[in-house]
Amino acid sequence: MQPKLSVENLYKIFGKHPAAAMRMLREGAGKADILARTGATVGVRDASFAVEEGEIFVVMGLSGSGKSTLVRMLNGLIPPTEGHILIDGEDVATAAPADLRRIRRERIAMVFQHFALFPHWSIAENVAYGLKVRGIPAPERRARALEVLEQVGLAPWADSRPADLSGGMQQRVGLARGLAADPDILLMDEPFGALDPLIRRDMQMELLTLQKTLKKTIVFITHDLNEALLLGNRIAIMKDGEIVQIGTAQEIVTNPADDYVAAFVADIDRGRVFTVDDVSSEALTVPLRDTSVRQALRLMENRGTQALYVMDGTRPVGVVTYRDLAASELDEATPNPTLREALITDFPTANTDTQLHELYGPAGGGLPIAVTDERDRLLAVVEPGDVLTHLSGAATNEPAKEGADAQPR
Predict the structure, then answer these.
(1) Which of 6, 149, 162, 337 could form a disulfide with 86 if both were Cys (CB 3.0 to 4.6 A apart)?
(2) pLDDT tens digits for the chain (409 residues)?
């Protein structure tokens, strides 16, 4: 299957001499040198990436990195100097004006940072604006607007004016307007940047919740790395118009491409980037029935571990520790000890997508954490020491190197 969106060798030069600037770029000149010699500004330089259907693809970088220029080229607001922008194979970069208008009406919607709502229109009318442009009849527009407002929790305010809503609520209206036309691709240009931190966090979580149902293809622009790491299935980091690295949050944090990216991720809370799935290992288990204390001790000795899970079928019924079993062997008051007598039934659990910061407390108890599914079946375990080692980030925030060392560690 081809990607929903494919960007190939995209350039944007601002100024009167783009051809001269392009020649200098191909000769290896830098952005500052091109500006000094031609007066042209390199907005985007040789950007290439693909976005799969249903993916949140985050583009992040500091001010002036080219991210906003890039997103505006994706829907034709800014024409590229060179390159291709393919939506299901249709090239936005070379589309005729009529085709570009159709693409904007039907295939791409944009959510802006500063809401861009019509103050004299009702919330429902604002949400239905794109449908009005497409010539959809008023009753149908109204019905669709109410449907989307229900999704974002604003149906009771359908007939209010934007001035009656808080900033966070107005941004939900902007999101609803983008969703109302049911576009193939949703472009979000720093949509939460003007919100207070707490409201911004709420909107981020709301977007993730909506995405589980809507499964939209989203290109999300931000200058906030924490936001990028939270939202992005993959992240592209830009600097001076170039994409310097594309990867998952885990790949970028563990294996930064260069010193620029390494500086970005140096102070990231790794516990909010990595999940149980990143540190889990095969579970050491024994069946509750037909396993003696001596057999369990011997297994732990052979495997070099201090605890193992005791199973009833596919479900863990408890965990036993080497210390407790060894003590029961020496207890003269219990001549024939069993696993059940040493069983710890109050054991820590997690699922595969639990973030590591949620394991700070459970890891402190010293027991391996059981990774279970929705039916309480044991999938794997997380050793407390592995959590702490991974969170320390020892020797992982170094720029990527050539060869085998370039792989995530």
Answers:
(1) 6
(2) 789 999 999 999 999 889 999 999 999 898 899 999 999 999 999 999 999 999 999 999 888 899 999 999 999 999 999 999 999 999 999 999 999 999 988 899 998 877 788 999 999 999 999 899 888 999 999 999 999 999 999 999 999 999 999 888 998 999 999 999 889 999 999 888 878 888 888 889 989 999 999 899 999 999 988 899 889 999 999 999 999 999 999 899 989 999 999 988 888 888 888 899 989 999 999 999 889 999 999 999 999 999 999 999 999 999 999 999 999 888 766 778 899 999 999 999 999 989 898 998 898 889 999 999 999 999 999 999 888 788 776 544 445 444 333 333 2
Please give the backbone phi and psi of residue 380, each rounded to the nearest 5 degrees, phi first. Answer: -170, -175
Rounded CA separation 349/381 (Å): 9
Measured CA to CA, the distance from residue 325 to residue 344 in angstroms comes to: 11
Distance between alpha carbon 114 and the CA centroid of its chain, in Å? 23
Q: Which domains does the chain have, with CATH numbers?
A: 53-80+96-270 (3.40.50.300), 277-391 (3.10.580.10)
Q: Using DSSP, state whether 397 is helix, strand or coil.
A: coil
Please tell me whether the overall predicted TM-score, pTM, comes out greater than 0.85 for this model: no
Write out the two tokens for 52: 């799969």
DSSP 117: -
φ and ψ at 42, to 5 degrees?
A: -85, 110
Per-position DSSP letters for 131-173, written without gaps between them:
HHHTT--HHHHHHHHHHHHHHTT-GGGTTS-GGGS-HHHHHHH
How many CB atoms are closer than 10 A to CB 403?
Answer: 6
Laid out side by side, the sheet with 217-222 consists of 108-111, 185-189, 217-222, 56-60, 234-239, 242-247
